[in-house]
Specification:
By secondary structure, the chain is α+β, with helices and mostly antiparallel strands. It is 51% helix and 12% strand. It contains 10 helices and 8 strands. Helix 1 packs across helix 9 (197-211), helix 4 (99-110) packs antiparallel against helix 5 and helix 6 (135-144) packs antiparallel against helix 7 (149-156).
């Protein structure tokens, strides 16, 4: 069963949603049959590539929120994060253009490390206060997952994976996705937002029962009118 997740590194609800989704999946008997594919999405693609802002400056300059209102919103998100086991450090978080981070996510996907990279990027941004558009920061994160430094640098200094990132964003538009996180469950159902564990669990069970079990039962129950690779035929 395939789960596609559109997400952005700067989205706190994406981090919360990831944790809640994984907790839901961990308790399900079919967890090893689930394939997760992370998809790129940019909340603010217009941010200059060479600029970084504090969270509070970003809310003031880009969103027009007074600092008091921004602090109130952030406090609410921190509380949600705490419930999901996340220690948000918004005071040190740097708001940047996340396109380079998404390129590295696609590189990690090539090395079957996309989930681990997603975690590393979230921690770097929300906990460690690192600049996730900085080349050396991204090289270090990739290196921590065993991805070759020279390969990472080549990706970041070329157009490698640019098309893949752009295609993910285009696919999101085709799906009508305007906010993240957004989960597409085996191409049939969708879950939007950082939902509670129980919501993810129920959605996963329903999707599995409706899209996977019927195919398994067909395979198990009826082998008539077929031939196998040894040339044996059953009527």
């Amino acid at each position: 069963m395939k789960i596609e997740i559109w997400s952005d590194v700067m989205c706190p609800f994406c981090y919360i949603g990831k944790n809640n989704f994984e907790k839901a999946l961990e308790n399900l008997p079919f967890k090893n049959e689930v394939e997760v594919e992370w998809k790129s999405f940019q909340l603010d693609p217009a941010l200059p590539a060479d600029k970084s802002l504090s969270t509070f400056d970003y809310f003031r300059e880009k969103k027009g929120f007074p600092e008091a209102q921004a602090r109130q919103m952030i406090a609410q998100v921190k509380e949600m994060g705490s419930s999901a086991g996340i220690n948000f450090n918004f005071e040190n978080a740097l708001i940047v253009n996340t396109f380079p981070a998404h390129k590295i996510l696609h590189l990690a996907k090539k090395h079957r490390q996309s989930n681990e990279m997603e975690d590393a990027l979230f921690r770097a941004h929300f906990t460690d206060g690192k600049n996730v558009s900085d080349t050396q920061t991204l090289i270090s994160l990739a290196d921590s997952l065993g991805i070759d430094k020279q390969e990472t640098e080549q990706v970041l200094t070329s157009k490698a994976f640019n098309n893949e990132v752009s295609q993910d964003i285009l696919d999101a538009k085709k799906h009508g996705i305007s906010g993240v996180p957004f989960f597409v469950l085996n191409g049939k159902y969708a879950v939007s937002g950082a939902q509670p564990v129980e919501v993810f669990q129920n959605a996963l069970i329903q999707t599995y029962n409706e899209t996977v079990l019927p195919l398994q039962n067909l395979t198990k129950d009826d082998h008539s009118n077929s031939c196998d690779t040894e040339g044996n035929c059953t009527i």
